[in-house]
Fold this sequence. Notes:
The chain is an alpha/beta fold. The chain folds into 3 domains: 2-65 and 88-151 and 252-303, FAD/NAD(P)-binding domain (3-Layer(bba) Sandwich), CATH 3.50.50.60; 158-248, D-Amino Acid Oxidase, subunit A, domain 2 (D-Amino Acid Oxidase, Chain A, domain 2, 2-Layer Sandwich); 309-377. The chain has 10 helices and 17 strands. The protein has helices spanning 13-25, 91-103, 147-150, 219-232, 281-295, 309-323, 328-338, 341-348, 354-361, 366-377; strands at residues 2-9, 33-36, 47-52, 61-65, 67-71, 76-80, 85-90, 108-111, 115-121, 124-129, 133-141, 157-169, 178-183, 192-199, 204-213, 238-251, 263-265. Strands 1, 2, 8, 9, 10, 11 and 17 form a 7-stranded mixed β-sheet that branches. Strand 13 (178-183) and strand 14 form a beta hairpin.
Amino acid sequence: xxxxxxxxxxxxxxxxxxxxxxxxxxxxxxxxxxxxxxxxxxxxxxxxxxxxxxxxxxxxxxxxxxxxxxxxxxxxxxxxxxxxxxxxxxxxxxxxxxxxxxxxxxxxxxxxxxxxxxxxxxxxxxxxxxxxxxxxxxxxxxxxxxxxxxxxxxxxxxxxxxxxxxxxxxxxxxxxxxxxxxxxxxxxxxxxxxxxxxxxxxxxxxxxxxxxxxxxxxxxxxxxxxxxxxxxxxxxxxxxxxxxxxxxxxxxxxxxxxxxxxxxxxxxxxxxxxxxxxxxxxxxxxxxxxxxxxxxxxxxxxxxxxxxxxxxxxxxxxxxxxxxxxxxxxxxxxxxxxxxxxxxxxxxxxxxxxxxxxxxxxxxxxxxxxxxxxxxxxx
Length: 379
């Protein structure tokens, strides 16, 4: 039975981020590492977007925007993002970057298998695939199990689910330097629904019909709403270049409670997704850096996670959207209508001071959150 120092069950964004940070640190050259995934990571299966003022993975950023639009049925606001830029990375570009770096290190291996089980046995762990079993010192698990969240009621689960079309149109209707962050002018139908638009030229854009809600829709409903939106833009002829779809868990469930001394849950399986927005890329970058720093001096994974004020802010929002899903447009609109966009994005990145937190929080419907606070205290 082959033994490794570290095994990653799943090789999604957070796993690859963590391995990448290990390589950059130069402190793990003497450690054998195995990544196991049923997906070979050779397809452009997703895109990630984030805002920042630095140069995170700038060599593979495919598009940058200096402005963003927030819209609902009553107002339309152009958000100046300075000092931030909104950036997009294609999944395949990220996979190729990381695997190219991995290929230069003989201590790291990738196995295209399906993980069927893993467990901790005393001072070591066991990982089983459909055909082979391994032992290791530590497991980094990024295989998300939704049943863990669904079988309890204390921490609600909202899903960010979407279908997106990348189109090329006959008419030049898009503003290349301005992304549509949230367009709530689409019919809400009792949910939190919006259109998300990332133009790459005046005739090309990714359009995603997105919901923050409990239940998924039929494929036909997502695509029907995209078609309506395209028609309302004044587009009469277009070609669909590519399609994508996704379903991101939004919850404050304490996944870290399932960590053991030698097994840590990362990515969606570890609650690394920003619960209030579903944004993952920047969060995964921060968490992976922190985890690698932790590994340099600590060995007990139960000591890694710490709750903070942002976890609690997100919890109140998820509580509200779970109970009254139709209020999402009202909450986000109140933030963005007159709020300082730079402070809002800084807040959503969990980098604000308490006084800056208040600048954002006071813009939100106060009674909704006060009521959610009292309900949470007695939950």
